[in-house]
Amino acid sequence: MPPLQINEVAPRDGLQIEATFVPTAAKIRLIDALSATGLARIEASSFTSPKAIPHLRDAEAVVRGIRRRAGVGITVLVPNVKGAERALACGVDEINLVMSASDSHGLANLRMTPEQSLAQFAGILEVVASQPGGRGVFVNASLSTAFGCPFEGQVPEARVLELVERLLELGIDGVTLCDTTGMANPAQVAALCQAVLARFPEAPFTLHFHDTRGMGLANALAAWQAGITRFDASLGGLGGCPFAPGATGNVCTEDLVHMFEQMGVATGVDLDALLAVSATLPDLVGHATPGQVIKAGKADRRYPMPQRS
Amino acid sequence: MPPLQINEVAPRDGLQIEATFVPTAAKIRLIDALSATGLARIEASSFTSPKAIPHLRDAEAVVRGIRRRAGVGITVLVPNVKGAERALACGVDEINLVMSASDSHGLANLRMTPEQSLAQFAGILEVVASQPGGRGVFVNASLSTAFGCPFEGQVPEARVLELVERLLELGIDGVTLCDTTGMANPAQVAALCQAVLARFPEAPFTLHFHDTRGMGLANALAAWQAGITRFDASLGGLGGCPFAPGATGNVCTEDLVHMFEQMGVATGVDLDALLAVSATLPDLVGHATPGQVIKAGKADRRYPMPQRS
């Protein structure tokens, strides 16, 4: 079995929606600690306008401040050409572009239809190719609402396949299929993963799940069964679903790693080290995190026999 | 695909560990409401000594007070011959006996080794057969720690298969394989389910999962893929793991039903009705419940487009 590659998104996808700004030095400490656990990639920040996402206004300082480690790719979210230029100037390994598979989510979240996003991506790819060092940077595209849109409902599989094809034709290096609001179910995940892998066998696909309706790990299992080996996940399950107060957000990295390691599927991640980093999150964000293994311990945890009278 | 049969365990497995006693009339209202949702079975109470489980001291009144509905089996937990006699006197459809697959969990939880439990079950089966109406009662055995013991660790699959064989030889009608403390992983679940179904193709097996480490639904998916169609689940995810404070307990019924219905697997359950019952739980038990769908809504929930400036 090929080992999994986990892309840790908490520093970007998690911290951006927290109530409080996490200081730059604390972000750097978090990412440096994550880098040491064996994660394949870390989404370190977002090169968005500081007005749009004030909590990530320190993107440059974070990316320039972290210790780079061989084998750990540093990726950042990039919303436009300007963001791409800023990211490349910091020497990232990967940039991650975001578009929606559905018109209404694209308009609501990005003020762009999928067509407009594709046109914008073409411009970003030109800039990346023209920059010094740009050609060595992996350009990923995250396709939001690939498993359903909270405004429109189902997004036809044929539409997702068409958008993936157009992304790859543009020159995008890899595509992340995102279950943005936790609508996916394992049967749907199996079908879409089988379809993209059959049609684009050379492209690296990443799956991004939310646990909004409790199906995060079941969906990851279904994707892995279909042949997917790259997953986004968020330490402690940080991140959320703005439409579902109280529901958990991104699938929790340590719970995902724990499940696959228990199954005998290598993740390359030192789970104990990862749990130690996760244990620092409540102090950082000011609340408990929704992960389960951090509360229960790993499945191989042993307890003393209770003393009975 | 055959429809699933869901056995709702919240009235027994959930309420027994709550901090407060739920009044008998409220228990009856809960079970009557659950009966109307299309669940296949409901574990209504436990005929244990009132000293052992004070919260279920009203087992007779509950079972006698509920409205019986065609197609909804009423099952109760029975710890010994006396409990079996009490249960049969109330006219239950099924009794559920409990034993552990591991010596130390059996001694800690029941003060009995697996061998002692098997001997006791033989006595209970004799009593059931000798009672008026007893022959029509389904006798199920729940095998705790079938996927691992919190004191001993791994329980060999061969040992579980041996105990299942001996239960069926005794005359037990069905066996529930219980992941008592949430140690199971999907690969292990697939392997054990395939093994029991291959070796005992005629026996009705039920799977009982805990979400202690976030794998509850992933394990249910793996069991279903292996051919299992009967599941225990607990409304709202009530119930717990005494060893893991803060971790969720039993797999949540509405989340399980939601996942399978979304996959196109019939459960026979009216999910909207079930969610309405789940929404009454916080008042009943005095705290929020860990279910996800109750917070997020079903995957087909639609939201209005946000108004942007």
UniProtKB/TrEMBL annotation, chains A, B:
What GO terms describe the biological role, i.e. biological process, of this protein? ketone body biosynthetic process; L-leucine catabolic process
InterPro entries with a match to the protein in the record: Aldolase_TIM, HMGL, PYR_CT
Under which name does UniProt file this protein? Answer: Hydroxymethylglutaryl-CoA lyase
Q: Identify the species of origin.
A: Halomonas heilongjiangensis
List the molecular function annotations (GO) for this entry.
hydroxymethylglutaryl-CoA lyase activity; metal ion binding
- State whether keyword Metal-binding applies: yes
Q: Which UniProt keywords apply?
A: Lyase, Metal-binding
Q: What is the lineage of its organism?
A: Bacteria, Pseudomonadati, Pseudomonadota, Gammaproteobacteria, Oceanospirillales
Please give the family membership noted in the entry. Answer: Belongs to the HMG-CoA lyase family.
Quote any Pfam family the record assigns: HMGL-like
> What are the residue boundaries of the Pyruvate carboxyltransferase domain, all occurrences included?
4-275
Please indicate which superkingdom the organism of origin belongs to: Bacteria
Q: Which NCBIfam families match?
A: PRK05692.1
